[in-house]
């Protein structure tokens, strides 16, 4: 993929370094822990309900957020500039509902697998997503939308 001037590496990084890839990596780590180092599996209707609510809620939140972005004809790709600043609906509650959905899904699978030590991955995932994606996205949105972004950011939390 390298073409001599580094553009190939940049393009590859932009398609591999994506939140769903990081989510899959964290899910894999949690699953490995659950299988290789199991600790006190708790398989009750309550844990099943909690896991289902977290995973299902995450998938629903993600679907709604993606639909809102598509309706407003703006990108869902983190490394691109947005064409429109979506501030209503689920974006009125969280500036990053898709990343919040990813976090809910990760937490849900950890609960489902009784991978309790892997709960440490949740704050690590939040930190990584914030550091690798959200901070850069916020800079682009600030530059592209100025006062409108500042107003939205002042009244809407980054995560929840």
TrEMBL record:
GO cellular component: endomembrane system
Cellular compartments annotated: Endomembrane system
Membrane-topology descriptor: Multi-pass membrane protein
Residues passing through the membrane, by range: 20-37, 49-69, 104-130
Lineage: Bacteria, Pseudomonadati, Pseudomonadota, Alphaproteobacteria, Rhodobacterales
Molecular function as annotated in GO: methyltransferase activity
InterPro entries per record: Phopholipid_MeTrfase
Main localization (coarse): membrane
Keyword Zinc: no
Protein name as it appears in the record: Protein-S-isoprenylcysteine O-methyltransferase Ste14
A GO BP annotation: methylation
Keyword Transcription regulation: no
Keywords from the UniProt entry: Membrane, Methyltransferase, Transferase, Transmembrane, Transmembrane helix
């Amino acid at each position: 993929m390298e073409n001599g001037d580094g553009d190939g590496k940049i393009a590859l990084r932009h398609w591999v370094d994506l939140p769903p890839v990081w989510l899959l990596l964290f899910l894999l780590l949690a699953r490995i822990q659950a299988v290789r180092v199991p600790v006190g599996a708790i398989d009750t209707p309550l844990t099943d309900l909690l896991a289902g609510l977290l995973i299902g809620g995450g998938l629903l939140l993600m679907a709604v957020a993606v639909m809102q972005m598509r309706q407003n004809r703006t990108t869902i790709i983190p490394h691109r500039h947005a064409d429109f600043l979506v501030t209503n609906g689920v974006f009125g509650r969280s500036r990053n509902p898709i990343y919040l959905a990813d976090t809910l899904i990760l937490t849900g699978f950890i609960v489902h697998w009784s991978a309790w030590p892997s709960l440490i991955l949740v704050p690590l995932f939040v930190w990584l997503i914030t550091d690798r994606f959200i901070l850069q996205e916020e800079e682009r949105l600030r530059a592209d939308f100025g006062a409108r972004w500042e107003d939205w950011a002042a009244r809407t939390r980054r995560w929840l």
